[in-house]
Amino acid sequence: MKFFVDTADVKEIRELNEIGLLDGVTTNPSLIMKSGRSIKEVTKEICDIVEGPVSAEVTALDFEGMMKEADILSKIADNICIKVPLTFDGLKACKAITGDGRKVNVTLCFSANQALLAAKAGATFISPFIGRLDDLAIDGMELIADIRTIYNNYGFQTEILAASIRTVNHVREAALIGADVATVPPATLKALVKHTLTDKGIEAFMADWAKTGQSIA
Ligand code: G3P
């Protein structure tokens, strides 16, 4: 499973990338707002840090506007992946942008039928939002499983990018189902390393080590 980090915080991206955890980055207008920086400047910096695809989202809602913004965003770096919303105009833009060899992430997916349409329109990635479905007491993971089945049934190459991940269990379940990618907020990505028994084990080893009176260095 590939890991993308879902943030526009350059410090976090740099740290996670240095230990080889990152296969890409996803951003969205809310994350750009949170960074407090200009979209072009921060996206360029992210693209220089990470080798894999960096999703940058269009903000126009009509096809022509999306295409214009996609052209501007594509010029930022070679590893830009254009993110479009799952609307009819978004699908039109997806078809046109992927048609000339660029990557597209179709975002804000909340149903299997939407995911089917995105695959038909040639999406590189489909982003089903798990957490936001869970917020409505709808099982977000069931959507990931449905999309996996549908894409497998027909051999669609669109990668399932599990998004709106809020917990470490979301990562585990998405991996078990076979999502191709999980885009995870930095804090959740870092939380994957934690286990009480690891901490307890370290504590016990350190207590015994102190008793030996030795030091390695
Ligand atoms: O990847 C999409 C993500 O940024 C949305 O997450 O937690 O706002 O639903 P959330």
Structural commentary:
The chain is an alpha/beta fold. It has a single domain (2-212), classed as Alpha-Beta Barrel (TIM Barrel), CATH 3.20.20. It contains eleven helices and eight strands. It has helices spanning 10-18, 29-35, 39-49, 63-74, 88-99, 112-120, 130-134, 140-154, 168-177, 186-191, 196-212, and strands at residues 2-6, 24-26, 54-57, 80-85, 103-109, 125-128, 159-162, 181-184. The protein has an eight-stranded parallel beta barrel, surrounded by six helices. Strand 5, helix 6 and strand 6 form a beta-alpha-beta unit. Helix 1 (10-18) runs parallel beside helix 3, helix 4 (63-74) packs across helix 5 (88-99) and helix 8 packs parallel to helix 9 (168-177). The longest helix is centred in the C-terminal third of the chain and has 17 residues, at 196-212. It is globular, with a radius of gyration of 20 Å. The two termini are 38 Å apart. SN-glycerol-3-phosphate binds at residues 6, 26, 28, 129, 131-132, 163-164, 166, 183.
List keywords for this structure.
8 strands; TIM Barrel; 11 helices; eight-stranded parallel barrel; globular; binds SN-glycerol-3-phosphate; 217 residues; alpha/beta
Give the oligomeric state.
single chain
Q: What integer is the average pLDDT?
A: 98
Anisotropy-based shape: globular
Strand content: 15-25%
Distinct ligands: SN-glycerol-3-phosphate
User: How many structurally independent domains?
Assistant: 1
Helix content class = 40-55%
CATH superfamily: Aldolase class I
Query: What is the helix/strand order?
Result: EHEHHEHEHEHEHHEHEHH
